[in-house]
Amino acid sequence: MALIRVRTEKLSRSIPCRAFYDNMENALSVGIKLRGKFHSYIEAKYFSFDLTRNGKLLQVDVWKPKSEWIVEENLVPPEKPAKENIVFLDFRLKTDPASYYTNPQRSILHIRFASGQIARFVSPANSLIFELSTADELVGLWITNIEDDYGFRKETAWRLKVKSLQAE
After folding, report:
1. 89, 55 in Cβ contact below 8 A?
2. 33 touches 15 (CB < 8 A)
3. How far apart (Å, rounded) are the C-alpha atoms in residues 28 and 12?
4. pLDDT tens across 48-98, in order?
5. Which of 67, 75, 137, 165 has the fewest Cβ atoms nearer than 10 Å?
């Protein structure tokens, strides 16, 4: 399996991000409010990254049902990750995450892509933390503050709110 190559760059501003799990669709949607339009994706059977033309992240989707996430009693995300943006260098790559771990409340999801050594943690937006190898390959991803949703109602309201704030 090929690892996803990325590069990091300085963040010019804080990027809003929210994670919603739709219990009706059994899907997790993580919206990143970043300027840019959908251009490409990196996907797997239960997972995808939506990317802009420049390789910046717009959306993360997880279609693996919560009931299939492995519960870890003491699952805690890394503290104080570097505040940097992630730029994906591989487009249309097919890669399957190795595992999906969650806390008992299912408000955190830790996705492992590989068992490689983690060199650093990078957070491009609140609720997202990337685990990178020394070669800037994606080893893992943390999604925090997951909210339960039904029919993507909360997510739609959040997206409308963020859109109206950007228009001001």
Report:
1. yes
2. yes
3. 27
4. 999 988 898 989 999 999 999 999 999 999 999 999 999 999 776 667 788
5. 67
